[in-house]
Amino acid sequence: YGKNTIKFLRLHREGKKHFVKEVEVCTHLRLTSAHEYLEGNNSFVIPTDTIKNIVLVLAKKNGIPTLEQFAIDICKHFMTTFCQVAYVKTYVQEVPWQRLHENGVPHVHSFICVPDGIRFCEVEQCRNGPLVVFAGIKDLKLMKTTQSGFEGFYKNEHTTLPERKDRILCGELFCKWSYGECKDFDFDCIWNTIRECILEAFAGPPDCGEYSPSYQKTVNSIQMCILSKVPQVQIVETVLNNTFYNVVDMKNLCLTNDKEVLVPVETPYGSCACTLGRKKFLEA
User: Fold this and answer.
1) To the nearest whole number, what is the mean pLDDT of the chain?
2) Is 242 annotated as a binding residue?
3) Percent above pLDDT 70 for the chain
4) 159 and 34 share a domain?
């Protein structure tokens, strides 16, 4: 049981310059007994309102240096404070506020919300067990208008999809990764590096791009790039929900539409998912 959707803004001031972190936190506990379920005995139950207050107090006392560290702080607090807690799991996601720039000059106290992917993390721990840390990015919308196709797929009497050598590749990406043994990582640096890996693998070189024969190959390229460049990451789970665009037929309007006006196909949409990890970690 636990408390979901604890939303708050943490404001930190350094003189005239302000820093903000707006987050949503979900914290769940499992207790050492089930008396509250079986007997209606609530003597071990930590009220969910107390859970909420603890999260807010930790934000006030410790700040939010990184999402991962804040989630670790929450888990450690419940494990060290309450002997009846057998397991704790905390999920934190961030509202994407970025500092506002005016004529290239960063503003001291103004921010703009830029929805270019939502950062999140997940930390869990069993009593006498290690901290397990996950991080990720979701709702990252990506598009490239060429250097993508889909050919040579299996066909039968139900196949109506034509082969395409050149198409728009567009989708919404979810990517979640796990770390090995939790050490003193620079979580901000790692997250930014992984985001760069995602963009690099999706788009290819800026002057020419890189051809994608399928959404599946693009997902694999993203995961391989992350694992090759970020040794702290052990397993990468990636889901790419596809957005298709159909070319508008303008013959009745006496116009030739050479893939210049297209409409999105909202539903149904395709989706591909893959989990890729280092062999020794998967075997463990």
Assistant:
1) 95
2) yes
3) 98
4) no
- Does 216 belong to an annotated binding site? yes
Domain boundary among the residues 129, 149, 182 is at: 129
Would you say the pTM of this structure is higher than 0.85? yes
Per the CB < 8 A criterion, the answer to whether 78 and 29 are in contact is yes
Query: What is the residue-wise DSSP string for 181-246?
Result: S--S--HHHHHHHHHHHHHHHHH--TTT---BS-HHHHHHHHHHHHHHH-TTEEEEEEEEEE-EEE
As a whole number, mean pLDDT of residues 252-258 equals 95
Q: What is the span of the domain harbouring residue 66?
A: 2-129
pLDDT at residue 281 greater than cutoff 90? no
Mean pLDDT to the nearest integer, 276-281: 85
Cβ–Cβ < 8 Å for 206, 173: no
Give me the residues paired with residue 126 across strands. 87
Same domain (yes/no): 119, 189 = no
Asked if residue 171 and residue 86 are part of one domain, the reply reads no
Q: Is 150 annotated as a binding residue?
A: yes
Q: Is residue 49 annotated as involved in ligand binding? A: yes
Identify the band that residue 280 occupies on the pLDDT scale cut at 50, 70 and 90.
confident
Number of domains within the chain? 2
Element (H, E) at 172: strand 169-179
